[in-house]
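PROTEIN DESIGN WORKSHEET
SECTION A - STRUCTURE
LENGTH: 324
TOKENS:
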């Protein structure tokens, strides 16, 4: 008999795989105690992402929908009103079939949230509020008027990366501590693990920002705090900051003691550090076209990680190899 809930079977299969892409490898590798709440949180975050990113819908409507979504996450019961708006105004605008289905099944995601036990529910509510705050900030900072805008300071970039990804590292740790407490090294405090987890999340978000620099600037967004003429220099500086964050991610993974959880946690870190290495070695023209690692690279990392996860020393050796 399956240990999956009805909602996990309905939403956590093909739909989750389609919208999460490579991160689905991490979600399916999680131990069962964590798989459902983290999969749900990811699905709900991707829903907010799709609302925020549907640029063909006006900024005012997207901000209103995100505000209503945040109220639903907090416990508001008016689900059908927003579900109807998403079906009518957002579904027809989706070029990606998986994101269209995500909008169509919005009410089902909220229903799944309502089934969570109090502790994971509170954790999911908190992380989603931060993510939605970050997305609303993003819409307000970058109006679609054809003008290139940059963030004003390093503090603004740090705040943004924490809101949309760093908080996820803290959420992940909080769930591990509550749902599978034996999975973390007792010699390290939960607070320290949350700090490392937040740094890892910020590093992974910086990879997204640096990898997408060409596409984003063409769309009028520059997340790096600099003038247009200084983007290339600033990009190199933030690539180093990204690598520093990922070093904390390595320490985080090394202090996860549960085998399956260590493997699941290591995958995005290892994929991230190899992407960073490829960006470091690429020409600026290639960077602006977008850097991706191949499916062959992904398959190789999956196989190597399965072996390296058996010890913290082997994990560090693999990380250093990919970073080189």
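SECTION B - SEQUENCE
RESIDUE ASSIGNMENT:
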């Amino acid at each position: 008999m399956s240990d999956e809930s009805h909602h996990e079977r309905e939403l956590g299969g093909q739909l989750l795989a389609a919208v999460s892409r490579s991160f689905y490898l991490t979600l399916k590798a999680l131990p069962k105690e964590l798989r459902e709440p983290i999969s749900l949180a990811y699905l709900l975050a991707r829903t907010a992402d799709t609302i925020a990113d549907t640029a063909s819908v006006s900024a005012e409507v997207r901000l209103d929908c995100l505000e209503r979504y945040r109220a639903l996450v907090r416990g508001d019961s008016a689900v059908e009103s927003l579900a109807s708006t998403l079906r009518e105004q957002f579904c027809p605008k989706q070029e990606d079939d998986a994101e269209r289905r995500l909008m169509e099944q919005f009410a089902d995601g909220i229903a799944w949230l309502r089934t969570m036990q109090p502790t994971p529910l509170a954790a999911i509510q908190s992380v989603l509020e931060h993510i939605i705050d970050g997305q609303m900030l993003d819409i307000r900072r970058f109006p679609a008027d054809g003008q290139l805008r940059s963030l004003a300071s390093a503090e603004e970039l740090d705040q943004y990366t924490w809101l949309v990804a760093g908080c996820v590292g803290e959420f992940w740790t909080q769930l591990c501590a509550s749902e599978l407490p034996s999975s973390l090294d007792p010699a390290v405090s939960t607070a320290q693990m949350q700090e490392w987890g937040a740094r890892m999340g910020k590093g992974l978000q910086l990879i997204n920002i640096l990898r997408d620099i060409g596409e984003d600037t063409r769309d009028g967004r520059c997340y790096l705090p600099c003038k247009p003429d200084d983007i290339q220099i600033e990009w190199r500086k933030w690539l180093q900051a990204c690598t520093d964050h990922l070093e904390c991610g390595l320490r985080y993974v090394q202090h996860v003691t549960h085998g399956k959880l260590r493997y699941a946690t290591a995958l995005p870190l290892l994929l991230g550090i190899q992407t960073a290495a490829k960006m470091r070695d690429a020409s600026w023209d290639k960077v602006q076209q977008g850097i991706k690692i191949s499916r062959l690279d992904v398959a190789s990392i999956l196989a190597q990680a399965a072996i390296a996860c058996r010890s913290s020393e082997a994990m560090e050796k693999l990380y250093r190899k990919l970073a080189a």
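SECTION C - NOTES
The longest helix spans residues 154-179.
The two ends are 45 Å apart (CA to CA).
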